[in-house]
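Support reply, case 0932

Customer input (verbatim):
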Amino acid sequence: MGDSFLPQDEPRSYEVSQRELVYQGAVWDVVRETFDFEGTPLTRDFVDHTGAVAVVALNDKDEVMMIRQYRHAIRSLNWEIPAGLLDVPGEDPLVCGKRELAEEADLVATEWTFLTTLNTTPGGSNEFISIYV
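Our regenerated output:
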């Protein structure tokens, strides 16, 4: 087989000419930005998110620790891996992951490996979530 194509995101930033706080929330804010997109002014509203960290905690049998969390926006009690917000300015994601694993699951891991960073809803939020194993 020939060369394979591996799609990759391409970070790109356009000059923001206007930014306003539309709504100040209890956890996240909504902002409105106007920017020049290749000669055309565009305006977008989005959730201004602090960022988050999630932890795939494995035991000696490679079982994944899951916790139940109520998620009001979708009216559901969900099974999830431990996770939490980067709500301390400048906080290292690994430090946050260790804190959240201890707070939510009462666990301390002996090994940590960075897995990936995801954008959960890039059309409406600037949230990045770092995932560790």
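We compared this against your earlier run and they match. Two observations from our side: The two ends are 33 Å apart (CA to CA). Residues 93-105 form the longest helix (13 residues). Please reopen the case if you see a mismatch on your end.
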